[in-house]
Amino acid sequence: MGPYFSLTAASLLLASGFAGVPSALEPAGEEAQQIAVLFWVMLSGGAVIWLGVVGLLLHSALFNRRVLNERSASRIILWGGVIFPSVTLCALLAYALWLMPGLRPFAQASSAGLRIEITGKQFWWEIVYHPSQGPPVASANEIRLPVGERVELTLKSADVIHSFWIPPLGGKMDMIPGRTNRLSLMATKPGVFRGPCAEYCGTSHALMAFSAVAMEPDKFRSWLAAQAIPAERAGAGGGALFLRHGCGSCHFVAGTDARGTIGPDLSHLGSRVTVGAGILPNTEDAIARFIARPERIKPGSSMPAFDMLPPDDIRAMAVWLRGLQ
Ligand code: CUA
Q1: Domain span including residue 113
Q2: Which residues fall in a coiled-coil region (predicted)?
């Protein structure tokens, strides 16, 4: 438990050092709030113990240098070295175990209705929303959540182990091939947060991220309803080039003949905060760069380069994709 928490603390402090990146120490969700409280309890407890030990050390080194008799020394070891650490560690363990059921409240999640299925792939995220009513809605590399409602997440992997984590909303959970893990989250404040992949999964592990958008419930519902229907411009200009150059054999775009399932669903790419799974701002330029040389932006990704296409074609496809709102 000790090394795990000190590592977590170190990574949390590092994460909070980056300006503008939401941190686990600025919780915007119920689970993250509880984890932050646990962190502060452990940090303050650790600080008090450290001060006590350093105080005793200074006291014995500077002010009280007499040699203790064997009886007093044994008593200090028994109380300070055995009883105190055992009691403190047991109390901390009991507190953490007491928190745990609250961090995994599945019963509440199922009754709330919305379930989001997330599958980790090298190096992106497949997302499927399963609302309580209506058909499933597919997306990629961005999850949206209604504020104040508990959402159930089912986490899977298609290749290697990835790990799902939205620091300001809750704890992390591994995505393991052949297994379905469940997590439930409740956002308490609207906002856009970055979710990194938290388990080394290959060359572009550090470039595997997603955006999590917590929205007011009615905005969320109208957004989800809009996602369920094909984007308006699905048949226009660059769309024909997209199909002609074979992009549709890997990517799905609702309302067109692009029906591939190997790569991310691009049906509403234009409405997402980022492209390339959390690494580039969603602009026509970024999309064009990704189409031309994906391996430069995301080494090890399965998408081949298309820089042999005329730049005008790439540009037209980028404009069309950006228009898929
Ligand atoms: Cu996926 Cu690291």
Answers
A1: 108-223
A2: none
309-317 long-range contacts (CB < 8 A, ≥24 apart) are 309/245, 313/241, 313/245, 314/288, 315/284, 315/288, 316/237, 316/238, 316/241, 317/238, 317/241, 317/242, 317/245, 317/247, 317/287, 317/288, 317/291
Residue 278 CA to ligand 1 center (angstroms) comes to 12
Burial class (CB in 10 A: 0-12, 13-18, 19+), 102: exposed
**pLDDT 10s digits, 225-266:** 989 888 765 556 888 899 989 999 999 998 888 889 999 999
Residue with structure tokens 């519902």? 221
Which letter does DSSP use for residue 147 in this model?
T
For residues 308 and 237, what is the distance between their CA atoms, to the nearest angstrom?
Answer: 20
Amino acid at 133: Q
What six digits make up the tokens of 266?
Answer: 């691009």
Enumerate residues lining ligand 1, CB below 6 A: 120, 123, 162, 197, 199-201, 205, 208
The CATH code of the domain that includes 143 is: 2.60.40.420
Looking at the structure, tell me whether residues 196 and 245 fall in a common domain.
no
Beta bridge partners of 137: 129
Q: Which of 44-58, 70-84, 104-118 has the lowest mean pLDDT?
A: 104-118
Rounded to the nearest whole angstrom, what is the distance from the C-alpha of residue 277 to the centroid of ligand 1?
11
232 in a structural domain = no
Residue type at 28 in one-letter notation = A
Tell me how far the alpha carbon of residue 99 lies from the centroid of ligand 1, in angstroms: 27
Q: Which atom of ligand 1 is nearest to the CA of 162?
A: 1
